[in-house]
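Title: Prediction job returns without error message
Component: structure pipeline
Severity: low
Priority: P3
Assignee: unassigned

Description:
Job completed but the reporter wants confirmation the result is attached to the right record. Sequence as submitted:
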Amino acid sequence: MHLKRIAFISEHASPLATLGGVDNGGQNVYVAELSKALALKGYSVDVFTRKDNPEIDDVVNWLPNVRVINVKAGPEQFVEKEKLLCYMDEFTRNMLCFMKEEGLRYDLMHANFFMSGLVASNIKTQTNIPYVITFHALGLVRLAHQKEMDKFPVERFDIERMIVKDADVVIAECPQDRDDLINYYNADRLKITIVPCGFNPNEFYRIDKKIARAKLGLKQDEIILLQLGRMVPRKGVETVIRSLSKINASIKNIRLLVVGGESDEPDEAITPEIGRLKKIAEEENVAHCVTFTGRRNRNVLRYFYAAADVFITTPWYEPFGITPLEAMACGTPVIGSNVGGIKYSVKDGESGFLVPPKDSNALAEKIETLVTNDVLLTAMKRNAVKRVNKYFTWSSVAEAVHNLYEQFASKQTKHAGKLILLPELNLRGVENILQETFLPRLKTQ
């Protein structure tokens, strides 16, 4: 039996969102690209995400065999993901209502992030539909790094513990992710499957550097370093900026491009992190060689990657990190933090370098090594392209996920049945999440 109809749940990360904002990044890309790749393999995919704009349609026929279902859950406007948990009951009810109205029964649900996992768990209880979970980030790991800056409700940790036990399979994005699930959440190793993220070779590929720079209006004679992603402190852009003041003064014409933010222009009022980083650049006397571009649409990102001599990503922690793959696909070596998925995707000394997070001295040293050695730089460009095309295309990721989904074929035959209809539905309310649900449930598992 081949599974055909899949429900992706991604409560805060829509595949249709513009990237670069505080809550729009790798998960959006993961959901978009994996759903597209699975559709090419014969699946029909519905992506359920929270409706955050009253002007968008409830159902968007996005691509052949891929629909985006914008679910009413809370106000139809942007809400920080840290404040969305209280709307997951409404999300669940409306998702089930949609399934009832459409006469749908999915073969499998693929939840993304812990709140989507909560939705999937509730729906599984009502329908026996199994679910896979990709966490994308783990609350206890985040708390260890961000401490008081972590604004998620404390219920997150118990929800994640429950989901680790309740999900049929947990997808870890790299070995570090698997180890964190085991060490922080006592996850069953046998339930964890490692499937990495990927890149789309039709979207990211080598472009002549001169052509890319001309298209973006960049100088041809500068050494361009690129940092691209969400503008939040944990992404470690501060480390990149501080490293510039430590690079040997004999290396001239260095330019750092910082791409990302909540608006197309680098507005400090809209993206306060940009303002904080600008002050750091001034303190380090490197403001003259740092350019904030604001966010950019994905259709131009390949030109930024191709225009750069080196791509730099130095987060404090990173469950996976898709931007290093995209950079390498465009033939740009990566200097990245030796954490999470980055140390899995970047081959240290071959397709780039790995450095400790928050270590601007080590980063400056590796930047110097690369930009002053044309032979090494050329070799790393070639190695980067080979590596990502061999191991990290979305088509290969989709093949691994497809094989994983197939494990549920016999289970679906066994549990096939009618959808439980509203209003008899009894959800595990968030307001009683600890007292009535998770603690009793954890004791019985």
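Comment from assignee: result matches the submitted record. The radius of gyration is 22 Å.
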